[in-house]
């Protein structure tokens, strides 16, 4: 009897023991914080119990506080993968998704999903990239783990798409970083791919004109879109691929011309720096967005209210994989859409530098970006001594019988005479880029060796010129388009870039002599630049003005394999770094990843592309770089409004540039440089001297100082303040203006303070 009773009680005893053990384990985990390491590169993740009700849970919105720094609290709402940043000092709040309270109810389901999702994916199904995967309309699952100073969430889209991504959100002091590790991105369904990922597409949004402020647009030197009510005037906002268009995916068309000869449309500016920003002036809250990783295939979107929805928003949208046009035959008579073989492989990371109080404006954004670049080693201090840039054209080519004939514009001896004459006019230090110095003239590319054209005097004359000018305090740089190859002067059988669709890329220019150029494969560009840098250094003339690769970035195919812009960027950066170790390197309108290798920035745009929706141009890049790297304007010769252009240089601290030649421009009429209608030095001698005298005096006041503030007064007067106490007041209007007790004449500037 006793034995039978024990047998009946045993199962219940075991079950009770198991339950007790589970309870003990749960209690122990809760007491210990429940640490469990998850294998995600660069991220330490642990699960933790949800915070108890109280100060860490907002009962009204269900946001949970997940991190706190000295100045900010980070709140998180899992169902929408949404965050709120609360400024502990001012109480100002920046949100990443449109709250239900601020939903105006005017929008369809697709836009509502876009507005209320912290992550939005555009999907490719088959070859169509018109599908939206958001967190409102598409079934999904979010699993969140807590890190020491933020969260890590795995977002899985179910059913139709079967995507999975991991997103790390971290509050680091006054920075919020959002990172999607490359290895966390998964496309689990054949024929269904990720096209783009938009990170916090409504971060810092405002509704119509509820807030005074603006958004920073990285167009040209910089521009602003105000947060006022646009009243539905615009059908589009700013959308710019960082570092310019991808010529490996999109065929380039010939520029618009008059009589197939003169360009009639100026290209818009490329996005040189991976930044954007939002300022709420009433709340004294702002942020600067910096795309830290994945920038080579990321677009900046800055969209004013009235474009589809009544909200102002700016964000980064990463392009992982795209659809392109695949010709069916060599004649391109038929095409079909195709999808890239592989996606972008890079961590996707945006850093939001949070700004408050007096720093919550575009001046604060510029200061923040400068600090970021210097602290991260992406920008290196250079000699910023003032020099006037006077570029010279050596030789060109025109058609002659069965070949071409040289058109000599400036010999080495004539170059020396021009520079000496400028010194007698008071221009004491000159930076010169010598174009068309190489054998065969300006468009005989690529350059692989130091071989000066005999029509300018050959190697001996060029070396002598460069040595003499160096002794006199001036510098001469040899111009090198390191990307282009001319099929009329060089073989293009090998080493020419093929687009993703395996067709050879052509850059048609409608030139008088040469009408089509090709791009070199990135590896060949690197090899050629290395050879040329060695040759220039060995010749004792180690000064190169680098073009082409500084503003070009493309995907390409080779021998059946696909290569992304990441591959091209890595090769270009390595090539520039190696060349900079051998030579002094100037870069022409360089993309941001090349700034650290540049002794000077050439052709800095002084304005934006003048899109209708842009409200104000600002010298944002100049504010960032002033005092770190010398920047030079585009050529003064070709500016229609020279007075305004001069004032912009005074405002931004950019040094002037001129392009001249010893001979009359009419000699170029049958060359590819026929559009250079005003080059003769004699016409610009006095202007160069006048610009030099005025801007050199201004540079003596500012020296190596940083621009710390840029203000626009109500009357239109502009005030630029440097950290050494110098202030520059610029008046673009037709009447005298006053500011801070300073009267500034019409279309003029005034300088106060400083040493």
Chain-wise SSE layout:
Blueprint: H1 2-32, E1 64-68, E2 72-77, E3 82-87, E4 93-95, H2 109-115, E5 119-125, E6 128-133, E7 140-147, E8 150-157, E9 163-172, E10 175-180, E11 186-187, E12 192-199, E13 206-207, E14 213-217, E15 223-226, E16 238-241, E17 257-258, E18 262-263, E19 275-280, E20 285-293, E21 298-303, E22 311-319, E23 323-327, E24 335-339, E25 348-356, H3 362-375, E26 388-393, E27 395-400, E28 403-408, H4 412-424, E29 430-435, H5 458-471, E30 475-481, E31 484-486, E32 507-508, E33 516-519, H6 522-538, E34 543-547, E35 556-558, E36 561-563, H7 565-582, E37 584-588, E38 600-604, E39 616-617, H8 620-625, E40 631-635, H9 642-652, E41 655-660, H10 685-702, E42 707-712, E43 718-722, E44 727-731, E45 737-739, E46 742-744, E47 748-752
Parallel strand pairs: 26-29, 26-41, 29-30, 30-34, 34-37, 37-38, 38-40, 40-41
Antiparallel strand pairs: 1-2, 2-3, 3-4, 5-6, 5-12, 7-8, 8-9, 9-10, 9-11, 10-25, 12-22, 13-22, 14-15, 14-19, 15-39, 16-21, 17-18, 19-20, 20-25, 21-22, 23-24, 27-28, 31-33, 32-33, 35-36, 42-43, 43-44, 44-47, 45-46
Helix pairs in contact: 4-5, 6-7
